[in-house]
Write a structure and sequence with these properties.
Elements lengths: L17 H24 L9 H12 L23 H5 L21 H20 L7 E5 L3 H12 L13 E5 L4 H10 L2 E5 L2 E3 L2 E3 L2 H6 L5 E7 L11 H10 L3 E5 L7 H13 L4 E5 H5 L6 E5 L2 H10 L7 H42 L12 E5 L5 H13 L6 E3 L17 E5 L6 H20 L1
Parallel strand pairs: 2-3, 2-6, 6-7, 7-8
Antiparallel strand pairs: 1-9, 4-5, 8-9, 10-12, 11-12
Length: 455
């Protein structure tokens, strides 16, 4: 077997000068050093890796899987047979996936390399979240599911035993109003019931009072949900008090931190909640936080037992691709790269508000006074119903993606509050956005606004 750290030993008797061999070994060892550090320390690298280093790691690990064994007799129904070599590229070679039927994090006998890859990814997920705001968690896993499906998985794992007649009726989850279809479907998927606690208007902001959450408790409740990141005017929930409430009444508590990792303020709310009371699981999207293609999430917990339960609730073997995508992001960004993105995000959030304030002042509109480290909302009081509808279309035609135009008098869903009557637009300065995107988007928004007003 080749020891790459001593590859020059095979060429000592060749015409190649020793000083050249030594220099080549030095360069190659420098290339391999981050991989050695990853295996030994299992931490997110401080500095970003090169793409060639990431590709070398992935190819090395994927070549350990049994579908790469040209001497094997493969007679199972699931042997990672593929129709095209493009499948190898899109899966980074991990065609066997990860986990075993009914146990997501179990080692996969046909995928030794995939199992190592998944183990590394989970170590990095835990290490990363500890570094960026949650030092008091104990375990994390990457799952090939979106945020809403991850919520279903968590609640399905932590729900009461509904086969027990005494627990059959404990199906209710207390939900501070979250106007998002994915969240609603999460409950219906597992047969749970929602008890929605309505949002209320506090100035420009929408909040769900902790008193109302506490008053909603009854004997059928087994869980409570809270959230950090959402669109203005909805603000984050009182994570600390909900955590204390969950601990006092023995309720499962899941925090939806969909795109909250990019905000130190939102992460701090969770950290305080973990210390103050009970949080069973925290869910964060991989695409919104870690710049991966859509399809993954990281589930974290202060309890290793909880993560084990969640892992064992997953049905079937899982695709490795969302896990590979997460690993690629961790290695290509490193701690320094991600911190740079966080700094840029905060600067761009300030820039977005500054630019929108100018537009608001010019048009006698206002910026909502709402706490949100990522998004900004501006009133659209001077636009009529048909103009609000036209504004969304105009922005789309001007190639501005992502803004949300709301007319609460026409569609209240999305505002999280029946009392909210002010029309508005929401723009985001999420991680990965650049200042040119912010500037051009606001310029095009102003152009669209002026066109619609002047008609």
């Amino acid at each position: 077997m080749v020891d790459f750290s001593k590859i020059i030993d095979y060429f000592k008797s060749t015409p190649i000068p020793q000083n050249m061999l030594n220099r080549g070994q030095l360069v190659f060892n420098n290339f391999l050093k981050p991989i050695q550090n990853l295996f030994e320390q299992k931490n997110v690298p401080q500095k970003p890796w090169s793409e060639s280093q990431i590709e070398f790691l992935l190819q090395t690990l994927s070549n350990m899987d049994t579908d790469k064994d040209d001497k094997a007799s493969r007679v199972g129904e699931r042997e990672a047979r593929i129709a095209s070599s493009l499948h190898l590229k899109t899966s980074a070679g991990f065609c066997h996936g990860v986990g075993r039927s009914g146990f997501l994090t179990a080692p996969q006998p046909k995928a030794p390399g995939g199992s190592i890859m998944y183990e590394l990814s989970n170590y990095l997920a835990l290490n990363f979240l500890k570094k960026f705001g949650l030092p008091n968690i104990k375990k994390a896993i990457v799952v090939p599911l979106c945020t809403g499906m991850s919520l279903s998985l968590c609640l399905g794992a932590l729900r009461p035993d509904w086969d027990n007649d005494k627990l059959l009726n404990k199906r209710t989850v207390i939900v501070p109003q979250i106007d998002h279809n994915a969240i609603i479907k999460s409950f219906t998927l597992i047969g749970a019931k929602m008890k929605i606690v309505k949002g209320k208007k506090f100035g420009d902001a929408v909040r769900v009072p902790i008193e109302d959450i506490k008053a909603s408790l009854d004997n059928d409740c087994f869980a409570v949900i809270s959230l950090t990141s959402f669109f203005p005017p909805r603000e984050h929930d009182n994570i600390k008090e909900i955590s204390k409430f969950a601990k006092e009444h023995d309720l499962v508590h899941v925090v939806i931190n969909a795109y909250g990792v990019q905000s130190p303020e939102w992460m701090n709310l969770i950290r305080i909640g973990l210390d103050a009371g009970r949080i069973d699981a925290i869910i964060q999207s991989t695409d919104k936080n870690f710049l991966t293609p859509i399809g993954g999430a990281v589930i974290a917990s202060p309890s290793e037992e909880v993560i084990t339960k969640i892992s064992q609730t997953y049905a079937g073997r899982a695709s490795a691709t969302p896990i590979v995508n997460f690993l690629i992001s961790m290695l290509s960004l490193g701690v320094e790269g991600y911190q740079k993105l966080l700094d840029e995000q905060q600067q761009n959030r300030k820039l977005l508000e500054e630019k929108l304030k100018i537009v608001a002042k010019k048009n006698n509109e206002k910026i909502f006074d709402v706490f949100n480290p990522v998004a900004v909302a501006m009133s659209l009081n001077n636009l009529k119903k048909e103009q609000l509808y036209a504004l969304g279309g105009a922005l789309y035609n001007l190639r501005v993606t992502g803004p949300r135009v709301y007319n609460p008098e026409e569609k209240i869903f999305g505002t999280c509050c029946a009392e909210f009557t002010t029309p508005y637009i929401v723009l985001n300065a999420a991680i990965g956005v650049n200042s040119n995107d912010i500037i051009s988007a606001v310029e095009r928004f102003e152009k669209a606004y002026d066109q619609i007003i002047s008609r």
